[in-house]
Design brief:
about 350 residues, Nucleotide-diphossugar_trans, transferase activity
Length: about 350
């Protein structure tokens, strides 16, 4: 097994370099530079089991003590003997997003190639890590995430209120992020390629419970490829720190903000295409029709029937506007990123290293 010291000194795992020299076409999990990042906050009752279940081919484990009142970092150092474990302590609580990004930075600095984020509450089945990592190693995706909604059997353990809430959040996330091909956006079992993670770390990603969805939005601005991985839900005796009533309003506003920023940036700043024209014309026609109808209703003589011309002037722009907006939406659905960016990023990083050598 590749040690942490080897990765730190050489930058990438020896097995990975050996496969590159030998021209091997099939990726291997052993020595692929896969690291776990585990945000730790009030999980001392579970974290030891999570680390014990970590597969032997994982090269390193970064446990991020997010200023935990239970002193998770001290507990891990006291009870866990796995040499792959690195404890990172944050001086101030930054939420799940801040802890995850800090863990990404630490693991990437130690030579990690693929970063797998796992919660410390033992909800996640670590046997699915290969399913998350494989699309990245094969060059088919930049970011992968779990999806508990691919089968009815996967939802048996999920409470009904969570099923409804996740379905609503999933549709909102599709609209705001542009990833119409993904579902279950709040699923925290994820994997990301290290070069892509470095770009994400430069962005203003939400640090708390909106982290996973906001990360998808920022990945969309990079045109990164995201893939869902089917997996069942697991619930035990963990206690959630999330209060639904406290996040509904803020989440809605953040989705609206991201949607507006995405449409403006994607269709009017970085590009101008057919969807841009459809959006402008559709909004204009819809607003004109609604405005004309409101004006007529406010000024009409009581009891006087509207003429055919008035009806057409009111209805036709609304119908046309709705059709144009639906066509723009269809364009957006088909515009999901489909070419991974991390092979390009790795090539550029290697060229920069060679130029600086």
């Amino acid at each position: 097994m590749t040690s942490i010291d080897q990765i730190t000194r050489h930058g990438s795992p020896p097995a990975l370099e050996r496969r590159k020299r030998d021209g091997a076409s099939e990726p291997s999990l052993e020595g692929a530079g896969v690291w776990l990042v585990i945000p730790c906050y009030k999980v001392t009752g579970h974290i030891e089991r999570v680390i014990a279940k970590t597969p032997a081919w994982i090269d390193g484990i970064v446990c991020v003590d997010d200023c935990c009142p239970d002193k998770s970092g001290d507990y891990i150092e006291r009870t866990v003997t796995d040499p792959r474990v690195v404890v990172l302590r944050l001086p101030k609580n930054q939420g799940v997003g801040g802890a995850t990004l800090a863990g990404y930075r630490e693991a990437a600095g130690r030579g990690a190639q693929v970063l797998v984020k796992v919660d410390g509450d033992d909800q996640m089945d670590l046997s699915y890590i290969p399913h998350l990592v494989a699309p990245i190693l094969l060059g088919e995706a930049d970011y992968t995430k779990g999806n508990r909604f691919t089968s009815l059997s996967h939802l048996k353990q999920m409470p009904s209120i969570r099923i409804f809430g996740n379905a609503a959040l999933s549709f909102a996330a599709k609209v705001s992020t542009g990833y119409w091909n993904i579902f279950d956006p709040t699923n925290g079992f994820t994997a990301i390629e290290a070069q892509v993670a470095k770009l994400v770390m430069e962005k203003r990603v939400s640090r708390r419970f909106f982290f996973e969805t906001d990360l998808l939005y920022h990945l969309g601005t990079l045109r990164a490829v995201v893939r869902d991985v089917p997996m069942p839900s697991r619930y035990a005796d963990e206690v959630s720190n999330l209060r639904i009533s406290a996040i509904v309003g803020p989440f809605a506003l953040k989705h609206l903000r991201n949607f507006a920023q995405r449409v403006l940036g994607q269709y009017f700043v970085r590009d101008f295409n057919a969807a841009s024209l459809e959006l402008v014309a559709g909004l204009f026609a819809l607003l004109f029709g609604v405005g004309y109808t409101a004006s007529y209703l406010l000024t009409r003589v009581p009891g006087q029937a509207a003429s055919a011309g008035v009806v057409m002037a009111a209805a036709l722009p609304v119908i046309l506007g709705a059709q144009l907006l639906l066509q723009a939406m269809n364009f957006d659905v088909l515009n999901v990123p489909n070419r991974p960016i991390h092979p390009y990023l790795r090539t550029v990083a290697r060229m920069d290293e060679e130029a600086g050598a």
